[in-house]
Structure formats: structure tokens, C-alpha cells
Design goal:
The chain has 173 residues and is mainly α. Helix content is 45%, strand content 6%. Strands 1-2 form a two-stranded antiparallel sheet. Helix 2 crosses helix 6 and helix 3 packs antiparallel against helix 5.
Amino acid sequence: KGPLAKNTQNYFLIALRAFLRFLAKKGVKTLSPDLIELGKSRDRQIKFLTTDHLNQMLVQPDTSKPQGLRDRAILELLFSTGLRVSELTKLDRDKINLETKEFGIIGKGGRARVVFISTVASESLARYLTTRQDQARPLFIRYSGKQDDDLRLTPRSVERMVTKYVKMARIPV
């Protein structure tokens, strides 16, 4: 398929260095892992949404249905708080305080932090929660599939949902 990308080459070099360190620990005489240098990789370009693109996407969910209200609340919460998708899906109803518009989260690496919710996201979340008839703990539940004990949305489900609304809004990013 052609030459390997710089990042791919670096992954191979990192594996090779790890193997050489392993051999050195076992007493095998070999090339020093420190002699293998990684190639320079270019800085990644950050992709971001304009305000217009974001607004286009936020109006896509059909808020006349519970699923649309949930999706709108998810989008508002993701973009107003900067939560990781995995953090969003772990949220429980009783952890969110809509009066103070804040909640605590245990993030990546086990670090605890306080997250603040925008007024628009808080209102969207309140509209969604008033339509919920169940007593399930998860903040965001699924409406399709087998309705067993665990109704919690998965991170992959949220990713698919976001992709769906990006396509519906015809956003290039």
C-alpha cells in the first residue's frame, strides 16, 4: 500500500526498543535500545466546530420524542462541559445537581473534579429528565434493544449518535 506513515514507523521502533530492553534484562548481548531514535512526527491539526456548525447539530434531534430529548441533552452536556464520552455514560441521575448546575466526576486516571453545566444544557437536561417514567440510576438510558436491568447507554452508542447528527447537519468536520 505504499510507505508507512511516520507514526506507524515510530510504533514499530518503540516495540523494537522494548524488545531490546527485554533482551538486555535476560543478559543477551545486543544493541543498546537508547541508540534507536524515533522519527520526528508533525504536529496534529486540531479540528473544531464553528458556532454555526455546533448550532446546526444541536437542532437536529427531534425533541418531540423522549429519545430526541435525551440526544439533545447529551449533545448540550458534551459541548458545554467538555466531558469525555466515557465519563458522560457513567453519570447517574442522583449525581447531577441542576439547581447549582454542577456535579463531581471521577475522570481519567482516577482524578476527581467538579464539572459545571451551562444554563442551556441544564434546561435541556431538566426537560429530558421530566419525560423519564423509569427509576433507572443511569442519567442517560437506551430506548432500543433488550430492556433488561442495565439500561445505561454505552460510549459507542453515544459516538454513533453524534455521528448521526453530524451527518444530518452536513457538517464537514
